[in-house]
Amino acid sequence: MRLPRSGAGWTIAVFGALAVLLGALGLVWPEAQLRMLGFEVPAERAAGDYTGTFLTASSMASFNMGVYYLLAAATEWRPFYRFTVWFRLVTFTVFSITVLTHVAPGRFFGVAAWEGLGAVATAVGLWWDARRAVAPGAAADDAAGSGPVPATDAAR
Prior knowledge:
By secondary structure, this protein is mostly helical. 72% of the residues lie in helices and 0% in strands.
């Protein structure tokens, strides 16, 4: 796998790696995942309680999404980076509302914060990369191994 070649790419790669790891954790040790999120882990589940099923589906989705993010970072798929900024802000909003309306425990706000901060970090990375692409010293940065940033992103 190739390392990211831009600041925004690194934010995507870090998020992807953590999504893969946390998805795997939820598949292998679901109780730990529930405790991290602030949910109760009863000794026994009642009939009709599909928490385990939902956690398996959610963990698998996290794992898969992490792989998508890592692929995007490896290929420097910048339209995907921009897309994630907006949808991670939507996710931040929805998750925050679930905590504020007491649908989820307060510790779940950490997930919302992670999404919001990740969106901002990627947006800043995109801005920084675009600025670097048009800066006079950009050629020197490229020679140092940071790699080119597509010119199409410099105008956005």
